[in-house]
Amino acid sequence: MTVRAYIGIGSNLEDPVAQVKDAIDELEMLPDTILAGRSSLYSNKPMGPQDQPDYINAVVGIDTLLSAQDLFARLVKIEEQAGRVREGDKWGPRILDLDLLLYGKKKIDEADLQVPHPGLHERDFVIIPLAEIAGNMNIQGHGLLSTLINQVENHSLKKVITGQ
Q: What is the pTM for the complete model shown?
C-alpha cells in the first residue's frame, strides 16, 4: 500500500534553481514511487547565518511503497550525490537539503529521523509550498496549514518564475 510523503527541498549554492530541479528529477526516479505534486520554487533569506546566499526552496509530494527509513536513506544518498557535505554550521550554506517532512500520518522519533519534521510548522519556506500542493491539510500536533501560515512571521518568500 502506498504512502503519501512530503519532502522539503532547499539549496543556496552552485545554481540553487538547478539543484532543486535536479533533486525533483532524482525523486521522480525513486523505485516504487510516483511524484504526486510539486510546488513552485521560492526564494527566501537564510534561516541561519545571514552572511550566505538566499535559498531556493520547494516541496514535493510522492506516493511511495518505500518505508520511511528507506526513503530517508535515499534522500541522504541524493544529497551526497549532489555534493553535500555534512559539516559546518547547522543552518549554513548547502548544495542540497532534502527533508522528509511527512510520511502519511506516521509519527517517527528516531535518532536520525523525526516525522513530522520538527521545524515544519515554524517555517514559511515549508508551510507555504506544502499548502500549495497539499491544500489545507492538518499537520499532526500543529493544526491546519492555513492557521500555521497565519502564525508564521517574516514571510520573506518570493515565488521564482522558471520554465519548470
A: 0.93
The active-site residue out of 74, 97, 123, 124 is 97
- Please report, for the domain that includes residue 57, its CATH number: 3.30.70.560
Whether 97 is a known active-site residue: answer yes
Q: Domain range holding 15?
A: 3-160
Please tell me which residue in 32, 38, 63, 94 is annotated as part of the active site. 94
Taking phi first (over 0 means left), then psi (-120 to 50 degrees means alpha), and beta for anything else, what does residue 89 get? beta
- Per DSSP, 117 falls in state -
SS3 6: strand
Under the banding of pLDDT at 50, 70 and 90, the label for residue 48 is: confident
The residue-averaged pLDDT of 90-97 equals 82
CA nearest to 7, candidates 32, 31, 37: 37
> Is residue 26 pLDDT above 70, yes or no?
yes
Give the count of beta carbons closer than 10 Å to the beta carbon of residue 36: 16
Which residues, listed in sequence order, are joined to residue 98 by a DSSP beta bridge?
Answer: 9
What residue type is 32 in one-letter code? D
- Domain count of the fold of the chain: 1
Residue 15 pLDDT exceeds 60: yes
